Amino acid sequence: MEEYPETIDYLFTTAVSIYGEHRVYLIKIQYKNKEYLKIGYTKNTINQRFSEKRYGGAEDFHLIEIIKEEKLQAGGAVEFEKWIKSNIQTIQTEMKMPGKGELFEVNKLNELIELWDSNVDRFRGIVKIKSPN
């Protein structure tokens, strides 16, 4: 470790990614001039997550509004996102970016908020390792 100190940074970043605190979020986005709702999780802030422009089509993606945001342990964040997606139908678009399978029609907003508010506490105690991104 003393010989390769950059290894410490890599190990710390990986540990945060697979085990650390994550933000699970519900946001409104615009993609190719159409609005959608999106759920997801990130170890970064939501604005940092969507400032990445390395993906094809990223220039057509715009964050409109952060509707809900909670901090959960990595495993709880993954499980909560999966649970929401299993309870409300996602939609398919031509989006190619990561997170393309986590989109909902805007008319699902009240249903998503109700599911979120009445169930997020169930996922606070979930602690487990998630796969690295």
What does this structure look like?
This protein is α+β, with helices and mostly antiparallel strands and 133 residues long. The chain has four helices and four strands, in the order H-E-E-H-E-H-E-H. It has helices at residues 6-19, 46-49, 74-87, 109-119, and strands at 21-31, 34-42, 61-73, 103-104.
Concise account of the structure shown:
With 133 residues, this protein is an alpha+beta fold. It is 32% helix and 26% strand. The mean pLDDT is 91.
Tally the helices.
4
> Based on helices, strands and strand pairing, what is the structural class?
alpha+beta
Q: Order of helices and strands, N to C? A: HEEHEHEH
Percent range for helical residues? 25-40%
Sketch the major β-sheet. Answer: 4 strands, antiparallel
Low-confidence stretches: none
Shape annotation: globular
Query: Termini distance?
Result: 24 Å
Gyration radius, rounded: 16 Å
Fraction of residues in β-strands: 25-35%
Topology overview:
Elements: H1 6-19, E1 21-31, E2 34-42, H2 46-49, E3 61-73, H3 74-87, E4 103-104, H4 109-119
Antiparallel strand pairs: 1-2, 1-3, 2-4
What attributes does this structure have?
single chain, alpha+beta, four-stranded antiparallel beta sheet, 32% helix, globular
